[in-house]
Amino acid sequence: MTQPCLPPDDLPALDSSFRELSWELEEVTGEIFYNNCDPITQGLLRQCGWDVTIRSQGLTLVVICPNHCLNWQVLQSLSLLAESLQILSNTAKIRIYPPPGTGTPMEVMVEDSFW
Q1: Is residue 8 domain-resident?
Q2: Numbers of helices and strands, H then E, in the chain
Q3: Residue 103 within a domain
Q4: Could you tell me which residue, 111 or 15, shows the higher pLDDT?
Q5: Residue 20 has what pLDDT?
Q6: How many domains does the chain have?
Q7: Which helix H or strand E contains 4, and what residues bound it?
Q8: Residue 11 forms part of a structural domain
Q9: Which tens digit of pLDDT belongs to each residue from 74-91?
Q10: Confidence (pLDDT) at 15
């Protein structure tokens, strides 16, 4: 009877390797998304907090708006954001967080785009 093949003790744990690969995938996906945006949208994103996450529910662009003016500009730019995101995934979501203490996040599916 043969022994099961076990990884050597000096290899990193699978969980940490998976987390690192997942983080790298999100980072590269975020770069692709950002580079696909026009310069005006890039400038808007630079004024907000934003990130691309990839979870079991799919790809999500998260935008955190620090003030009402930027929140309004992000909402007006939804079609541009969706267009840039749709290249990566037709089932992506955009989640927009208003300024702290002013409401709840809004979530839009890219596939439901009406733009």
Answers
A1: no
A2: 4, 4
A3: yes
A4: 111
A5: 73
A6: 1
A7: none
A8: no
A9: 999 999 999 999 888 888
A10: 66
